[in-house]
Amino acid sequence: MYVDVKVEPRYAETDQMGVIYHGNYFTYFEVARTGFFKHFGYPYKLMESRGIMLPVVDVSCQYKKPILYDDDIVVRTSIASVKGVRIKMSYEIIRTTTEEVLATGSTTHAFVDLELKPVRYKALDEALKEIIEKVCSHKE
Amino acid sequence: MYVDVKVEPRYAETDQMGVIYHGNYFTYFEVARTGFFKHFGYPYKLMESRGIMLPVVDVSCQYKKPILYDDDIVVRTSIASVKGVRIKMSYEIIRTTTEEVLATGSTTHAFVDLELKPVRYKALDEALKEIIEKVCSHKE
Amino acid sequence: MYVDVKVEPRYAETDQMGVIYHGNYFTYFEVARTGFFKHFGYPYKLMESRGIMLPVVDVSCQYKKPILYDDDIVVRTSIASVKGVRIKMSYEIIRTTTEEVLATGSTTHAFVDLELKPVRYKALDEALKEIIEKVCSHKE
Amino acid sequence: MYVDVKVEPRYAETDQMGVIYHGNYFTYFEVARTGFFKHFGYPYKLMESRGIMLPVVDVSCQYKKPILYDDDIVVRTSIASVKGVRIKMSYEIIRTTTEEVLATGSTTHAFVDLELKPVRYKALDEALKEIIEKVCSHKE
Question: In the list A52, A136, B48, D63, which could disulfide-bond A79, CB 3.0-4.6 Å?
Fold first, then answer.
């Protein structure tokens, strides 16, 4: 189960090779992540108001074909796994006109409270656990 | 009286026209502004610790010739004027190899305290006033 | 006559003051400018294919109230004036929930051909002139 | 064998958590990579003039502790491996005042010619091969 989040490449994000600069893909992943949780009625703001934050601890990206400024893209976003106090999100950047996968990637986050202390899965907000149960099959 | 602050253009800051994206000039002005006050032994951190902040209220930039990724540039930085609770900084981006002015610009800032309330010039920290007196001839 | 273009602030664009970094407003203006011409059926790509480019020669921005990450904003975009080989676009960033103007700004562009030579207004593409005639009352 | 490249965090790169935004670490890696090759007298420009480019095909980053705006950091940069037509660079971001490793990461690049066709290791420019031989022990 995944959510497709539309992202509009911006001119400022191109580089002199004429493509979207590779570091900006993580901005797109963040936009997608936000859209993913919003899709389930659970915006970040609500998450924070319930005392949960998701700082990034690990990221990766594999670049297949460049993203051009004019490309119509979506980021196909899902939860890859939840293990202990960590959640791993997965992403595919897809050019909608050709259905090509331009890049894949992942970001791993720690569940922490507002004092940055780890929060165990069982202690999470029920609404957040419901989303995870619904989306993610690899949970330990 | 001015201070020349070296700034290194970064690849991420180029755009698909093959030049530094015009919005990034304000990042260079900020690096220059920081370097300017550091030059006078007055880093932002010290300013903040003395209860003064300088939020941006107005900016402008005039683009003469593009900055290329490989260009060696300095930002010639000065205080243009101080009026009431506002300070206006001026900048020239200069390619050091040819001494050409690639762009000029300005940023105007309010003197505020940590609660964002305006601070009158007379009430400023003495060290900051000394820098202004030394550098700036247009003070009202 | 103006066009309201929705822009979504991104987390990456915030700074440690907890607001959208002031330099990023020019990225928003660019997104708005693109949306403005697209609204009239004249995307940049078409413009370039007809041999016209609009490099930035001058920009300004006045900051009234900060933009927050969660803000719903539009950029109210118009053509302020056309003089000789230059076109000046104007922008208002408006928080849609409160109808407050958070910032105003402008960008001035030269009409140039693909070899960066100035193009006089009369020599412009008819479709572009039609948009200008429709939108802009200050034309010389 | 590694090269330590100094990078100055910029205010524009902070986010509303009060730390350097995680996507910007790849900009720092790029600055470090450029500095690494420059250290060996082989700037990118020379590389390109000899018909070699190094597009990014894969990246990763592990975040240990946040980078703050005021931090003095270096990026400890090396070549991790060269396999077939790919080179993997490795990075450690180190706070110089405390010698703590704040983050580790890698970027993998393809050797390609100016038409983006893969270039086998043996066919590379001698000067580039010399640097690789000197720095990298994992070469296949």
Answer: A136
